[in-house]
Amino acid sequence: MPFFKNYIGKQYGDYTLLKLIGEGRYGLCFLAQSHSGIPVVIKRFKPRIFKKNKDKNMFEAVILSQLHHQSIPELLGVINEKSFYGFVLEQKHGDTVQSLLFKKKHRFTSKEIYLIGYQLINIIQYLHGHGVVHRDIRIPNVIINSDKVYLVDFGLARWADNSCYKYDVDYSYLGDFLLYLIYSSFKKQKMKRTPWYDELSLTNDQMLFLKRLLRLTDPYESINEIKKDFVKAFSIEK
Question: Is 32 helix (H, G, I), strand (E, B) or coil?
Answer without folding.
Answer: strand
